[in-house]
Amino acid sequence: MSSDIKNTDPVLDHLSAYERKTLLGMIRKGISRRDFMSYMIAAGATTAASGTLFTGLSDAWANTPKRGGKIIFAGDQHGPADTLDPALNTASIDYFRGRMFYGSLTRLTDSLGYEPELAEEVIPNENATVWTFKIRKGVEFHNGKTLTADDVIYTMNRHLGADSISKASSLVSMIDRWEKVNDYEVRAILNSPNADLPNALGTFHFKILQEGVTDFATAIGTGPYKVKEFKPGVRTIGVRNENYWGEGGYLDEIEHYGIGDAVARLNAFLAGDIDGMVNVPAKAISQVQSAAGKELWSLESGRYINLVPRHDVAESNNPHLWAAMQHLQDRQRLVKGVLKGQGGLGNDQPIGPAYFDHSPDIPQRELDLDKAKYHFQKSGIGSAPIEVIAAEVGPGAVDQCLFMQREGKKIGMNFDVKQVTTDGYWGAVWLKAPICVATWNMRPTANIMLTLAFQGDAAWNETRWKSEKFDKTLVEVRGVTDPTKRKQMYHDLQMDVYENCGMSIPAHLNYVDGVSSSVKGLTHVPLNNFGGAESPVTMWRDDA
To answer: Most exposed residue of 34, 83, 343, 534, measured as fewest CB within 10 angstroms of its CB?
Structure first.
């Protein structure tokens, strides 16, 4: 722990790891700086070096995870569709819960790379069409069974085939089959190259299950916590898994539930009733920053809010309607006024500047009443009300509709914005209403994002837009290594969405959560709230 401590004193240079560990123990037990320095000087160290070591060891102790305690975190969405089946996870609250109880073959890093987790090694062949995963030995499920290749094969097969219920099956659709090499080694055989496969397997839906599990009233995983209580739409409680194979799982208990109303969630956080909250309202950012013992947990991201017109129903299958809606978006006001700068301008396609493969060459759409009026008149809608269902599923999600409604009145468009609660929204409204709002977490790569939400047969293709050319390019680019060709192909994909999908994406959002100063071990993976939902593993409390 003290390996980063720099000093030039020869006495300190000759301290062994054991001696430094002993000195760290003194700090832990409460030795004073004066007594510590007296001890070191008697041993022949200088005053300056003794002070340096004391400070370094004190910092190491302060940053050393402590076991014990409980945290309570509140999301913003929950409902009867809450599930412990990772393949069916939909909302941020699901992803956090999944990380409490399960592990994956790989896990994502703050820089959106990947590292092995339940797989000790990840080995591709030369053209990324065969991937070998060597499974970590000695890992136990919550019921004591040892993790083996059979569990991995069972889990991965749930995401394959036309009958798969997985919400992320499109991310692994290029996998022809999984093969068992031996009890601790599996192989994925692909029908087309995919250099992004380990990143995809580190996302939320590919948590490893025990072979044969079909009942998800509880979770039998390998994660740092075990289920104590799970009540869909109410709350989830996890307790420490004493047999967790890795570093982490420091808390005695984590409680997690949803508070749909942003003001109520903020008040609970400021009052100390909860230790963390998602989506601090922009107007309350300064309030949280100035509150004693409260901090912002903000991550720049490619996350976005959007307006979704369905192509497969008459009420919203009108390209001129889509274009009018896009030109009525007051993007500048949304970012500056509503988000308070915690985000950036959206441009009606999902791959923003936070992505490696973002194309900067797409013209930025702005609020333009003349163009909106032109398309409105071409749409033939007239004064008929256009229903838009909105809930605050993300910061600015409702405001984008209200701004559009206001600007629409100036050209004679009549938007009927119906505001509903976030509770149960993803089950009752999204993918069902002709026009509604949505919000999307960032994914590790542009290809994963585009595959999940825009590929023609993807379960979450929310507009139902289909393009054979788009789907073909999306598959082909996964095996392209020439940077110039790759750049052009990703530009073409983004332009196709921008010109033809009809979705409005007015803003990209930072994740802006609130957390108690006593909660340590925060993560910063920019894919979801609460540090990319990776934080359950590493969080601990320091109430000293």
So the answer is: 34
